[in-house]
TrEMBL record:
UniProt xrefs under PANTHER family: 3-ISOPROPYLMALATE DEHYDRATASE SMALL SUBUNIT, 3-ISOPROPYLMALATE DEHYDRATASE SMALL SUBUNIT 2-RELATED-RELATED
Segments traversing the membrane: none
Its job: Catalyzes the isomerization between 2-isopropylmalate and 3-isopropylmalate, via the formation of 2-isopropylmaleate.
Assigned EC number: 4.2.1.33
Pathway connected to this protein: Amino-acid biosynthesis; L-leucine biosynthesis; L-leucine from 3-methyl-2-oxobutanoate: step 2/4
Catalytic activity: (2R,3S)-3-isopropylmalate = (2S)-2-isopropylmalate
A family per Pfam: Aconitase_C
The keyword Transferase appears for this protein: no
Keywords associated with the record: Amino-acid biosynthesis, Branched-chain amino acid biosynthesis, Leucine biosynthesis, Lyase
Gene source species: Maricaulis maris
Family to which this protein belongs: Belongs to the LeuD family. LeuD type 1 subfamily.
Residues of the Aconitase A/isopropylmalate dehydratase small subunit swivel domain: 20-127
Protein name: 3-isopropylmalate dehydratase
Length: 195
């Protein structure tokens, strides 16, 4: 059975900003941790080499280590987020850490696809809105997936695009495998009728 994914319909959250461009998947979760096929527990490894010292102790100076993701469920990152090698573990780690959406002005295509199919909403923001978010860390925003709209309050609100099947999976709290498994009876009936 696939690991649990929360459904996403609306997100009312403060933002957490990492104002750095070209954050690659090895920074999100180092390759040495890609030894599991489960999402569970990967959150503690998110941004591992930024968050821990050489002995594996959390660094007090790194704000990610004290972040309350019950309040900050939206990560705002610099341009070209998720570049580098393809790995589903990157969105898995961010999701398990507690983020439900990532906003950037640009994503690596494979990371964006992996995120949308694994419980993490990737939102491409127009340049003006992205710059405003980077300059206003911790601001409260509202994301509405059904209408594909981000309300920035005093900032430049905007609409965003998302592939329809990915949107369906995110809103239903499932992934492509879970979607197929939910239709197992219909698949079995079809195969029986066409044997």
């Amino acid at each position: 059975m696939p690991d649990q994914i929360d459904d996403i319909r609306q997100i009312d959250s403060r933002t957490f900003v990492i104002d750095q461009e070209d954050i690659d998947t090895d920074q999100i979760i180092p390759a040495r941790f890609l030894t599991t096929t489960s999402r569970d527990g990967l959150g503690k490894l998110a941004f591992h080499d930024w968050r821990y010292d050489g002995e594996g102790k959390p660094l007090d100076t790194v704000s990610l280590n004290s972040l309350d993701t019950a309040e900050c469920r939206v990560l705002v990152a610099g341009r070209n987020f998720g570049c580098g090698s393809s790995r589903e573990h990157a969105p898995w780690a961010l999701h398990d850490f507690g983020f439900r959406a990532v906003i950037s002005s640009e994503f690596a295509d494979i990371f964006r696809s992996n995120s949308a199919r694994n419980g993490l909403l990737p939102i491409v923001a127009p340049e003006a809105a992205h710059n405003w978010l980077l300059a206003n860390p911790g601001v409260s925003i509202k994301v509405d997936l059904a209408s594909q709209h981000v309300d920035l309050g005093n900032g430049p609100s905007f609409d965003f695009a998302i592939e329809p099947f990915a949107k369906h999976c995110l809103m239903e709290g499932t992934d492509p495998l879970g979607f197929l498994m939910s239709h197992a009876d219909a698949i079995d009936a079809y195969e029986a009728d066409h044997a």
